Amino acid sequence: MGLRRLVLDVLKPLREPSIVEVALELSKVPGVEGVNITVNEVDVETLSLTIVVEGTDIDFEGVKRVLESVGAAIHSIDQVVAGKKMVEMPSSCRGE
Fold first, then answer.
1. Dihedral sign (CA 53, 24, 40, 62)
2. Rounded distance, CA 35 to CA 26, Å?
3. Can you give the residue range of the structural domain that contains 61?
């Protein structure tokens, strides 16, 4: 079944393309069914983003290629879900 969700901490230059354009490009990657981009911080030259990609059998290399093509860099991979079923982190692990 492959990758179903990726949560990425990404740094993107402030210049174009917009996060709307980045989301649309990511949505074209094979296996991607949905994209959520949240701006966490705006610096003088960069945006700190959390990017959530969901789908079935997500092409991780394709996701990386899109981000690299817009000058963005994956700072960290904060969550990965793979397999037949979406597995959520138990609330006891999230500190709730």
1. positive
2. 7
3. 3-86
